[in-house]
Amino acid sequence: MTFPRTFSHIGISVTDLDQAVEFYTQTLGWYVIMPPTEIVSDDSAIGVMCNDVFGEGWGRFRIAHLATGDRVGIELFEFKDAERRENNFEYWKTGVFHFCVQDPDVEGLAKKIVENGGKQRMPVREYYPGEKPYRMVYCEDPFGNLIEIYSHSYELTYSAGAYQGDAE
């Protein structure tokens, strides 16, 4: 029988691990589970596991583990020779192109993201203008990773038929 799995964690690549830890702890309130640590390619259990994941020749990287208020893990990676993508919004290509957080003060969190080195990509929009207070906006962290902000839970937003207009 298939049942809905819970979300454990997401890995996010950044160009400056220390700056990323500061951004996410200060801006989103996530807390540090494991501070920045260097991982090297060697015969240790983690070294062998990383060879399996990244292939031979990855050398070394730095990682920090954070957690959200609802216990979802955030792995922040800073790889050797890390670089920011020129076009960080190739939404038509496969892969994760954003993650979403929930905050009833969408505008306030978007402002805080900008104040802490991020970017607001669009105006705050309403799903049901004049009908329900569901709002959203896309932002970026200082490294170009996209952060969407919802005012309400995913279930509330979509169970009401956000894209179907008036259901009759």
UniProtKB/TrEMBL annotation:
It comes from the Bacteria. Gene3D superfamilies: 2,3-Dihydroxybiphenyl 1,2-Dioxygenase, domain 1. Keywords: Lyase, Metal-binding. Residues 6-152 form the VOC domain. InterPro entries: Glyas_Bleomycin-R_OHBP_Dase, Glyas_Fos-R_dOase_dom, Lactoylglutathione_lyase, MMCE/EMCE_epimerase, VOC_core. GO terms for molecular function: lyase activity. CDD domains: VOC_ShValD_like. Pfam families: Glyoxalase. The keyword Metal-binding applies. This is Lactoylglutathione lyase family protein. The lineage of its organism: Bacteria, Pseudomonadati, Planctomycetota, Planctomycetia, Pirellulales.
